[in-house]
Design brief:
The N and C termini lie far apart (60 Å). The chain is globular. The chain is built from 12 helices and no strands. Helix 2 (23-54) crosses helix 4 and helix 5 runs antiparallel to helix 10. It has 277 residues and is mostly helical. It has one domain (23-274).
Length: 277
């Protein structure tokens, strides 16, 4: 039995070492991987600690209740629940809101549009935008790293097949500009893109820069709507809502053309990269 177990372990080791020329090289790679993972874990814990520390200086959630009609009743009901949940954490409510925004990217428990509106309503225009942006960046980073470490099999189980088939092109040689456009244009599944780009060759730094900047206009529009609702500035609310609906309608109307153009642009970029001088 011991010889069988040793033989089994030998086969497994041989399989794992296929890309390496020696056992020492394989063990060196394992050590580097663990060290990189440990460093990223320390960075994550440090970022979370800093978020909780700074949250004490952020204004507490706005708790006044208003009404714009029965069509907003559902929003107010959910907003009240979110307010009660956040205020229960006292001075750390802003940090918890950031974590909620991050989690909605990683596991999508609640729609990101709702959390964006709530951020503006509870914390105002400026702080709502900052907190939402920090949370979305943190969640994007986590989703990217999870995909990078767990690999394509995990991503294939995590995403729907139609999404994977449609956006599989982003997993090979996607540049910063294309990544920025994918996160900028309304209608694209941005949370899923974080996982797909995690199994691409894109560096973490380029991903974070492009995805964060690309998300900002949409995040600001959502935050502004929530802040205008909080201030009972219904004229501005309607204007921002009309702009948002128009952008979403145009993105939906031309979604196939946009997807085709982005996919072909990626192919043209790949061909130019490999073409001889």
């Amino acid at each position: 039995m011991e010889s069988c177990g040793a033989a089994g372990r030998g086969h497994i080791y041989s399989f794992l070492c296929l890309p390496f020329t020696s056992k020492d090289e394989f063990m060196s790679w394992m050590t580097r991987s663990r060290r990189h993972l440990a460093v990223k874990g320390i960075v994550l814990v440090s970022v979370l600690a800093l978020i909780f520390l700074l949250s004490r200086f952020v204004p507490q959630p706005f708790t006044a209740v208003g009404s714009l009609g029965e069509e907003l009743e559902k929003f107010y009901t959910r907003r009240r629940r979110m307010t009660r949940f956040l205020t229960s954490f006292g001075p750390y409510s802003a940090a918890v809101f950031v974590l909620v925004q991050a989690l909605q990217v990683v596991i999508s428990p609640i729609p990101g549009e709702f959390t964006g509106l709530v951020g503006g309503y509870l914390y105002g225009d400026l702080f709502g935008f900052i907190l939402s942006s920090v949370g979305l960046t943190l969640g994007s980073w986590l989703a990217f790293e999870i995909a990078r470490h767990l690999g394509r099999p995990f991503v294939e189980r995590r995403l729907r097949k139609e999404v994977l088939d449609k956006f599989n092109f982003v997993t090979s040689n996607v540049g910063a500009v294309l990544c920025f456009l994918l996160f900028l244009i309304p209608g694209f599944p941005k949370d899923y893109l974080c996982y797909l780009l995690g199994i691409s060759r894109m560096s973490l730094g380029v991903f974070l820069m492009a995805s964060t900047l690309g998300r900002m206009p949409g995040t600001y529009l959502l935050t502004s709507q929530g802040a205008n609702l909080r201030e009972h500035n219904y004229v501005a609310l309607i204007i921002v809502a009309v702009i948002s609906v128009a952008l979403l309608f145009l993105a939906y109307l031309y979604r196939e053309r946009l997807h085709h153009w982005l996919k072909n642009d990626r192919n043209r970029s790949s061909q130019s990269d490999i073409s001889p001088d």
